[in-house]
Write a structure and sequence with these properties.
alpha+beta; 2 domains; 4-stranded antiparallel beta sheet; two-stranded antiparallel sheet; 8 strands; elongated; binds zinc ion
Length: about 240
C-alpha cells in the first residue's frame, strides 16, 4: 500500500466522476495498492476489499468516522461517531482461503466468496432475490448430491440458504453494522455501514474543498495548481487562513 497525495486523490476523483460506485471503488484501490493488479483487486472478496477501503480511509482522513443517521422510529436525525478499529473484523487464516466447502443434507458444495465482479454482474438482475440467486450461483464451483454431480439449478432452497449464511459468516467484513440508539425515543437499531459509498462521499467533499483552496491561493499568490497541491496540508491551510474569506 502506498500513501496517496492530494494530486493522486484528485486524479482518481476526476476519473471516477461519471462512473458507477463499484468502478470508483476499484479505481481507488488500484491507486492505493499498486502491488495488486486490477484483476487481483476485482477478485478480492467483498469483505477483504472493504478491509482495504477502511485502511485507505484511515490513511487519507484519519480513524474517526462521523456521520448522520435518521431514527427509523421517530425520524430524528442523530450524529454517530465510530472508530475504524472497532469496525475491522479480524480474519482467521481459514477465512482467507480461496475455496470453501459446505455439507448440507446430502449435498456437498465447493464455493468461493463473492467479489466485485460478481456484484457488478448481479446488478443486472431485476430484483434483490434473483440477484442473490445469481450471485450464489456464480460462487458455487461444484455441487454434488449423494456423491453424484448435481446441477446448481436443482439445489433445494434449504441448501441455498445454508450457503448464503455460510458466506456471510466467512466474509463478515462485507456486512458491517453499527448499533445506534436514538436519544429522543430510545429506539435501538443496527445500521448497515457501507465503507465504499461513505468514502466516496468524503472524497467528493474533500475534492470540492481542495479545488476551492486551489482557486483562492492561485488568485492570491499566482501559484500553479501543481504548486498548490504539492504544498503540505499544514502549509496549504495556513496560507488559506492568511488569504482570508
Ligand atoms: Zn427516535
Amino acid at each position: 500500500m502506498r500513501n496517496l497525495n492530494a494530486i493522486d486523490v484528485l486524479n482518481v476523483w476526476e476519473q471516477g466522476l461519471n462512473r458507477p460506485l463499484l468502478q470508483r471503488t476499484l479505481m481507488l484501490l488500484a491507486a492505493a495498492f499498486p502491488e495488486l493488479s486490477p484483476d487481483n483487486i476485482a477478485n478480492l472478496s467483498i469483505g477483504t476489499r472493504d478491509a482495504c477501503l477502511l485502511l485507505l480511509r484511515e490513511r487519507l482522513f484519519g480513524s474517526r468516522l462521523v456521520n448522520n443517521a435518521v431514527c427509523p422510529q421517530c425520524a430524528m436525525r442523530i450524529e454517530w461517531e465510530q472508530n475504524i478499529s472497532d469496525l475491522v473484523v479480524n480474519m482467521s487464516d481459514s477465512q482467507i482461503a480461496h475455496q470453501f466447502s459446505l455439507e448440507s443434507d446430502d449435498y456437498r458444495l465447493c464455493f468461493r466468496l463473492p467479489n466485485s465482479i460478481d456484484l457488478a454482474e448481479a446488478e443486472g438482475c431485476g430484483n434483490a432475490e434473483s440477484a442473490l440467486q445469481y450471485l450464489l450461483g456464480r460462487c458455487i464451483l461444484s455441487a454434488e448430491h449423494a456423491g453424484a454431480f448435481c446441477n446448481i439449478d436443482q439445489l433445494p432452497e434449504s441448501v441455498v440458504q445454508a450457503l448464503n449464511q455460510r458466506i456471510e459468516e466467512l466474509d463478515l467484513q462485507a456486512e458491517v453494522r453499527i448499533n445506534l440508539t436514538c436519544p429522543d425515543c430510545s429506539h435501538n437499531w443496527d445500521m448497515f455501514f457501507d465503507i465504499a459509498s461513505f468514502l466516496w462521499v468524503e472524497i467528493n467533499e474533500w475534492a470540492e474543498r481542495m479545488l476551492q483552496t486551489v482557486h483562492k491561493l492561485a488568485r492570491a499568490y499566482g501559484w500553479t495548481e501543481q504548486e498548490i497541491l504539492n504544498l503540505s496540508p499544514v502549509r496549504r491551510q495556513l496560507y488559506l487562513g492568511m488569504v482570508g474569506p
